[in-house]
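[stage:ingest] chain + small molecule (guanosine-5'-diphosphate)
[stage:ingest] validated
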Amino acid sequence: MSTYPAVKFLTSANDPRQFPADTDVEVAVAGRSNAGKSSAINSITQRKGLARTSKTPGATRLVNFFELEPGRRLVDLPGYGYAAVSGEMRRHWGTLLEAYFRRRQSLRGVIVVMDVRHPLTDSDNEMLGLALSGGVPVHILLTKSDKLGRGAAQKSLAQVRKAAPEGVTAQLFSALAGSGVAEARGVLERLLDRKPEKETPVGPADPTGASKPGVGG
Ligand SMILES: Nc1nc2c(ncn2[C@@H]2O[C@H](COP(=O)(O)OP(=O)(O)O)[C@@H](O)[C@H]2O)c(=O)[nH]1
Ligand SMILES: [Mg+2]
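[stage:predict] done
[stage:export] tokens:
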């Protein structure tokens, strides 16, 4: 049986005003274009077509929100690091990502997907910095591990664990071989269950309600 029998697409946002209501909990998935992010989301949720996979890098420009079950969301962030996009487009993505990490109260953790054969690129390191600036735990999925032999994959994992910022965890993953999927799902569940570091103040945090984005897009 599926862990998320009722998983469904919620909404796509091209602008922070289109983010769904910032209630309950969510985990974001980030990664370079073509790293294997959509494939990882489909494997973890056991839904083949949930997040679209593509052979066209840079195709996903939106923040896509999925509901795993009521009150628990998975967020597919726009892929980064694709050289062919215009400077203007890149600035738009950067602003959207920064807005997301700065305001999302419901964010409980970030999963960063990297190709096991070339992890921790400059843009990956920027993403780790951005994710950590949100004050939430970060977990790295080294995907496409089927592309390497066992020894080489383990070596890449050891190097990433050593080079990644303090507190960041990492694992091997393959959507194709189905390896590391249960481990990743376990991490996702633990992140969603995590209590936020800071106590939420009693009463309305924002009496004007101005920071509450509208539901839907
Ligand atoms: N061999 C292998 N290929 C993969 C794996 N995951 C994704 N891919 C391929 O990599 C390409 C990009 O995958 P996609 O999930 O769309 O990447 P995204 O751009 O990060 O969402 C597609 O051609 C996938 O079939 C994997 O675990 N192993
Ligand atoms: Mg994708």
